[in-house]
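Tokenise the fold.
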Amino acid sequence: MVYLLGEQLEETSTEYVLQNDVPAVFILNETEYLEVLKKLKMSFEGECRISDISFCKIETQQDCLYGTLSIPSLIDVVGLKYKLMLFINSKYIVIVDNNDFALRIIKDIRKKVFNQGDTKERLLYNFIVGFMNRGTNLLEDFERDLMVLDDDIIHDKIQNFQNRLMPIRKQLLILRNYYEQLTDMFKELEEDENMLFEENQSRYFGVLTNRAERLMDKTKHLLEYTMQVKDAYRDKINTEQNNNMQFLTIISTIFLPLTLVTSWYGMNFQNMPELEHGYPFVIILSIIVLTICIIIFKKKKIL
């Protein structure tokens, strides 16, 4: 798909763009982008396949910018990634995408944005905001999940806690790295080493940098929150274990005198004075010892 740049993106063809020498954005797949790049006289050093893309970056080439995007899916942050290649020169933007992710964003721009792309800087801004805004909702979902976990700890609902917390932490780590890469990428665009952008239009990349930094800070905050929730869980487990150990210690302490009594009277010496009526005597003595121990523990507020 080819669209002419303007306040309203108009669908056109490669031939029309070349004949009239007008700025445009191209949405291509991996099988056709090299041929179109030659027609647009956009060359870059090296070779890249979409399947090899693993992170977001931007590189300054001789006559264009070359970039890659690896965008985590909202459905499966750990697994599924939307992978794109970008080629930008003074007039054209070429987006290489083997799926329809980029095309869906362009269609959303055409439906919802008033100034869709009167300049290539504006179009890049709209395009990037199109997938960055979705990350805000995802982080809010993670924050709600962590608040639920925190509340469950307070109410002693800690079953499968680790299985619920660790996937959230893993996804947040991936998102933190993703936003760090975007921040570096936008700063590189803002520096504009090849002078491909209008000076008064570079502010769009500054806005994107600030937005990526805010999302990165939010992600780091949520990672810290996961550690706080994990610490609260450990404190809860330790408190329960301490209570159990205290209870067992009290029981052992109470029955220790009874053990001594039963051991003593279990010897059955011939000259033992209580031998004739020893059974009821030991029962009464055990009850007295047990009662005294309980009274002492109550006064000490141990029970």
About this structure: Helices lie at 14-20, 33-39, 101-112, 120-154, 161-191, 203-265, 278-299. Residues 203-265 form the longest helix (63 residues). The CA atoms of residues 60 and 292 lie 85 Å apart. The longest strand covers residues 65-72.
